[in-house]
Amino acid sequence: MSLGVRQALQIPPDHFRYDRPLVSMDGFSHELDQSRVYSRKEKEDLAKLFISLCELMVPLTEVIMLVYPQCEGVLCEDLENGLTISNKIQQCRILLSRWFEKACISRGKFLEGSVTVSAYAKTLDVFY
Question: pTM of the entire structure?
Answer without folding.
Answer: 0.77
